[in-house]
Amino acid sequence: MTVDPRKDPRLPESPNAVVVFTDLNCSFAHLGVYRLHETRRRLGLEGRLWFDHRAFPLELFNHSVNERPGVDSEIAVVGALAPDAGWRLWQGPDWTYPVTTLPALEAVQAAKAQGLAASEALDRALRWAFWAEGRTISMRHVILDVAKETGAVDVSALAEALDDGRARRTVMDQFAIAGEGRVNCSPHVFLYDGTNEANPGVSARWLNGDFGTGFPVIDSDDPSVYDRLLNHAADLLPG
Asked: Using the 8-state DSSP alphabet, how is residue 33 labeled?
């Protein structure tokens, strides 16, 4: 039985959307979003299923910057699960490392006014810009440059939305919706009928300290969970 999404704000508003709660500088989210795109393409579901990105701002949950040592320690481990996703250790000066992802998360939400295609194109491009190219995606001009490079985003409209802050409320509302354990982590995927998976297919733990001190170990990885999720999402489509 389908769960009414109006009764659960975590769920998509229509069966042709897949909600993905993430942060942009989360390595597990970068892996998950890459696998979502690749699986959708391989299954021939492009144009039938869309990714509705929602914000899971780690800096707000943790009351702290997502520390570079923790992020760097994950790259070789998580990156090895999908090398083609685009990974590189930060090469710029420390003072150019993004201290916040809120402006970029806000831009992804603002782009939804242009449709989910524009929003998911910007989300994926921002991830590539940070993880593969080492660009400071907290900066307004970088966000707009990345948006222009997608060829899918009206950059003038996005700049106007960023400048008047119209999507900041959306990011904060999504942060509130995700709170109190209702969204477990970045990434967490939700389908129209309530089916959901947190950090799909991956089980990990930290050794010799927590994030920023120790290092992650992947206990199991099952990429086929993305096939199951998207095939199930396709089964929910009308007709």
From this structure: H
Q: What is the pLDDT of residue 36?
A: 98
In the predicted structure, residue 159 carries a pLDDT above the cut 80: yes
The Cα–Cα gap between 143 and 22 comes to 17
Query: What structural domains and CATH numbers belong to the chain?
Result: 18-233 (3.40.30.10)
Q: Cα separation of 126 and 133, whole Å?
A: 10
Average pLDDT over residues 223-233: 98
Residues 6+ apart with CB under 8 A from 214: 73, 206, 207, 208
Task: Give the strands of the sheet with 50-55, arranged side by side.
Answer: 50-55, 17-22, 188-190, 196-198
pTM to 2 decimal places:
0.95
With H, G, I as helix, E, B as strand and everything else as coil, classify residue 158.
Answer: helix
